[in-house]
Write a structure and sequence with these properties.
By secondary structure, this protein is mainly alpha-helical. It contains 4 helices and no strands. The protein has one domain. Helix 3 crosses helix 4.
Length: 90
């Protein structure tokens, strides 16, 4: 399945690759946050990082505390859009 064509697919593909490589990134934490649902929808997701919500927020805050909340919410909306789109094509 070509997940790159789905909304947020670029984030998911990058996050899955980072998880497989053992890299903690915004994308890896985002995929970790949604790992259970993504697996349920048929996506092969490596083991998730622990406490992804908190770690994602901390990573975003380290890059700019004033905008961390808004960027966190935008990323969560993108992963939810991906989940919904994947659910429609599964």
């Amino acid at each position: 399945m070509d997940t790159a064509a789905l909304p947020g697919g670029d984030l998911v593909e990058h996050g899955v690759a980072d998880l497989a490589a053992g890299v903690e990134s915004v994308e890896a934490l985002l995929v970790s946050l949604a790992a259970t649902k993504l697996r349920r929808l048929g996506l092969d997701v490596p083991p998730a990082l622990e406490d992804p919500e908190l770690r994602l927020y901390q990573l975003l805050a380290a890059d700019g505390e004033d905008t961390a909340h808004g960027r966190y919410n935008a990323l969560v909306r993108r992963i939810v859009s991906f989940e919904r789109a994947l659910g429609c094509v599964s």
